[in-house]
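Worked Example 4.2. Consider the chain below.
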Amino acid sequence: IVTFAAMAPRFIIPPIAGYLADRFNRKHVLATVYWLNTGTTVLLAGLAFANVLELWHLMVLSVLNGSARTFQMTSTAALVPNLVPRDRLLNAVSLNTATQQGSRLFGPGLIAPMLIFYGPDAAFMLSAGFYALGLIMVTRIQTHSTGDVRAGTSVLASLGSAAMVVYQNPKLRVLFIIVAMHCSMTMSFESMLPIFSRDVLGSGSVGVSYLMMSVGAGGLASALLIAG
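Applying the procedure from the previous section yields the following structure tokens:
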């Protein structure tokens, strides 16, 4: 349920996130997102520390975090091409993916011992610290990056224009379908990891951390291979 709450915004918010990433300075969008993620994670740590954390808290904060994550991914993907020369774009995109997969590899490795020795509240605070570090790094970006959206253009009009571009380009159509199938079907395995770790491996939350590390290791290796 919590995984669904975190993933559901990715099916609804991307059109709005894409519009805002084109309408406003992407640096400012990212800074707002990191502020939100830092705040919600600190709140989550506080609830866990006070031992009052309930399922509905997790669901609400997961929706907020998942929504912010959608804005973060969209704005970052749109910002990267404005930070590097065109001939370095493939490497930049691959390395950006490598950082995401690297966090899946090294993040759970840091979280697992904290869950064992200090509990979930300490793990949440560590996560909040990394979000705060991300906020600091975003504020250091000097490039002003926006899309080509005229003032007064509505979200629906912008979305319609994007849909026409995809429809008129066969390669984009195929890519769009592949990505949609991957995100809706393949990525659902993440919701099964806690149950698999508990019922099959008998490892609980620590086992989930190690399973996510293996996913991150494969993703990181692939991203570095593409980056050359």
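Residues 1 and 169 are 37 Å apart (CA to CA). The radius of gyration is 19 Å. Compare this with Example 4.1 before moving on.
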